[in-house]
Structures
1.
Amino acid sequence: MSEPAKLDKLQDILGVTFNDASLLVQALVHGSYLHENPDFTLPSNERLEFLGDALLGLIIAEKLFIDSPELAEGGMTKLRAALVRMETLARLAGALGLGDYLYIGCGEENSSGRGKPSILASALESLIGAIFMDQGFEACRLFVLRLFDSEMGEAVDERLAEDYKSALQEITQARHRTAPSYRIVKTTGPDHAREFTVEVSVNGTVIGSGSGRSKRQ
């Protein structure tokens, strides 16, 4: 596949059409490629990575602040850190197939560089920076929120569950000197839309129950 065709395919995957395609290319250029191709006309993606990292942190922080008023500052800080860590970014970049489009040196190519979490995470941050430079903050924000939608929902659910379970444990430890226990009492629905009912007990006495699409909910 020709380079223009590959870039068109990637833009279709991203749902973003660049006005300046050179910004998209730059976001895909790993430093190792320039070491082996010194005449290449574009710089590496390192500067775009710096910009994308800052934008990503801001966009995720704003989303958590607006959509999760029940989260305290500490909870938002932990959630943002979990969402923007290398492992999460690499997983999302892998889901986009970003590694297939990278410009990397032969050394990295031969050592499975296209699948390295650090390289994939950096490329995704660079891509975010490139979208901002090409189309502005709003387009960049929409891309990030679309990309992180599922990850963010799961992370918020998990954080809240941990916070609520911790709070309940503190109460039961203080009043009854024991921790609560949880039990799944019912699972309904098809595999793709399960609903769980969970009971919580203290000293063998059921004190509450709840249902949700995940155990954490």
Note: Strands lie at 181-188, 195-202, 205-212.
2.
Amino acid sequence: MSEDELELEPDIDETDVDRAVAASTLVLSAIPTIVPLVAEAVKHGIPKQRIERIARMLKFLENQVSGLQEGVLAHRMRTEEFLDLFEDGLWQTTRALTEERLAHIASLLKNSIKSDDLAHEQEKMLLSLLGQLNDPELILLGWYGTNMVGERANAYYARHEDIVGPTIRESLMSEEEERNITFRETYRATLQRLRLIGPDQRGSDRITPLGRLLLEQIDFYE
């Protein structure tokens, strides 16, 4: 039996919901309709160790929307479209393993509140794309987002060379080096399949408008 299964309880009381929302004050006090969504997620079997992830994501979200007028915030977060997106974000939150991932989810939710530039279906697609990328794939997309030239790109490469480095095979490579190249190729193939990168006129992969939009909506470089 897994650790998650051991931590599941058949009856989760209000205390567990309180734990999930305790880190947030502005967001949930302004938007009472969000509390039932959190409660529903908790009652459907989120292990206790994952409830804290919801609390941390909500805190990120609260910090990011703190500059908005409360009336505007409340109005936008009560819409059916936002609540639908928020519910999807909750389930991704329970699977997030890093603070960066939680912040990206919160950023996408925040940007859906602050801007009407995208249709609801487009925001849902971007959130779904985020959920389909693991952290190395997202880092690789970020590398393409730098356009791979200039001082900023050089600094990014230095931080993530193990992920964004070349995939050229050479003779006398070790088994570990071969394996790492295979993983890098797989990361790139995922970005190609999702149309986040694609060939330019010279046949070299470049970030697509969709890939750049995803990075913008999750505030990737911030």
Note: Confidence is low (pLDDT under 50) at residues 1-14.
3.
Amino acid sequence: GWGVKGAAAATLLGNAVSTIYYVIYIRKKGQILSLKPSYAIRKPKSLLHIIAVGMPNGISSILSGFAATFSNNLLVLYGTNAVAAMAAAGKATMIISMIQMGICMGVQPMLAYNYGARNVSRLKEILKALSLLTVVIGLAAAAGCIFARDTLIGMFLKDAAAAQMGKQLVAYLVLASPIIGFYYLGTNFLQAAGNAVTATIVSLLRQGVLLIPFLFLMNHLMGFLGIALAHTLADGIATIVAVLAMYIQYKILKINRSERQENHYEKNPDTEKVRMVR
């Protein structure tokens, strides 16, 4: 019965409980992980590098808040139903990106390990499998959201007019679902490679540099539905950039690996003879 205050309190309590759980788990069962600050400040350069690699996720979260503010300011022009409709449609389709982001973040240690080991063949195998997985999940989830949008929107909105607007928005918001997995794969690959600068730039594109101008542009061109399409356009272009950056980083790894092998064979000519015999 607290209304908006209750939602805020629930969010705060949820975060607090989960944080306490993680702290207890690490203290009791963490054989390697530790919460002692002395370990963190022992090597400041290493700490800064870790923070830099994780920076894209933080920046993305901050920018999404700014983008939501700009989006709501534009939606208010079409009435409170439009704001409610976008919130409901966004929540209904958010599950798609959350699943894909979870998959790509979950395999980041595997990407980092194989990148560091310069195991190109294994890395290629992982990227192919992840690409297929994210596309299939994106297509299936997008189709599910479209066919079940009446039920999904009905979970959030009871007003008929607002619900109808929400159903329209869902169709636009899921357009990039089949390819958005490549965006998360690209950013996580760049982070796994230790390329914090490029990963941060890619994160800035999707939620800030591209999305915010697109919100105003598409609102001007298409009105209410253009605001939803702005998200799809930003996702699509950011995904293309992320894939290109990932490809360049992958090629750099292959070149460095080849150069290391050539240098090794030059220093150890007998190794090449053995390899040829095998």
Note: The first helix runs from residue 4 to 29.
4.
Amino acid sequence: DGLEIIRELKEARRPEPIVFVTTTSRTAIAVEAMKLGAADYVVKEEGYVSIIPFVVRDVLERSRLKREREDLERRLARAEHLAALHKLTGGIAHNLNNPLTTVRTFLELLPSRYEADEEFRTSYYELVLSELNRIRDLIGSMMRAVAIPEGGEDAPWLLSELISEVEGYVRPSLAEKNIRLRTNVREGLPPLPAGREAMKQALIILLDNAIAFSPFGGNVTVGTRLKRAQGRSQLLIEVADEGPGVAPEHRKRIFDPFYSTRPGGIGIGLFVAHCLVRAHGGVLDVGSAAPRGALFTMALPAGTA
């Protein structure tokens, strides 16, 4: 029947739009045809043949507009990618040029001042080593940004187990500032199918960031919950601190590379976390915690509800 023909056409990935013509006026049949991929339908009533050309023209016009929109979206995505690449390249150049200038100055002065200038041999030498370490850290951060772990072969994993594992990574940082890590992990959450290592890396970054901005003796909270909307489910991981929070004017740029509100920060960590979450179909967002502080939320797809 017509419904089976639509199924076969869609399975064969035929690109032509389909107009479903049926003898029944039952709404359920028309709805089923549209769900299978029909662009429109016509009921075989008196005069229906004269209606078909108008329906076909309308469907073809909608199909043309859809192709144009998809083409524009591809161009926009490419333009955004190039803009992000330009910003990233500019940030790398800026953050490398400054320490390299220090190293070059040291090497230029080395022949004439090393023997006679003790301060040059000590303080300037230590400064150069510090700048070289800065370059090393920057390159390491960039490598982590582009080396997004693949998660397609993961066994299903639970958020509760991942959070327990991550606690061990941040325990020394917590102890250094006497910060308490509070966890509120809901029971019975469904397992996630992929991306365990990527999400672990992203969560460690968020916790490191929360600890850095939290006051001495404060609290950092990690919570999980399930959100259902429009037949889909999302697993949410929320990291809250008691620091100064992220001002509204900074939120649009907080995930940009080399943008940091942290004194001495490179501005790579949140960029890496954002890339990791997006690469696995999720969303990373920032808001305000109650009564104060920042709230970072990772929303990961959990399949159909």
Note: Residues 230 and 305 are 9 Å apart (CA to CA).
